[in-house]
Amino acid sequence: MTEPVIEIERLEEMANQIADFFSPYPEERAVEGIRNHLRNYWDPRMREALRDHDNAGGAGLHPRVRLAVARLREDADLRAYAGPPRGAA
Known about the structure:
Elements: H1 8-21, H2 27-41, H3 44-55, H4 63-74
């Protein structure tokens, strides 16, 4: 494993700040917003470190961040998507 681009504590703090930003939103929109932000603005190495941290139990991560990371795993091969939650009318 290579040296992390940013310490995991800082990534955790940043991810939780994103979750705080989306806290007024309904669950589905918040999780999708967090996922979109991580996909569009985070370096792939940062996303990988966050996924590894989540795989190791995700201590300290907001539950919505953990849901967003799970979605990143589901569609890791897709291009960035910043639209409304999938399946929304």
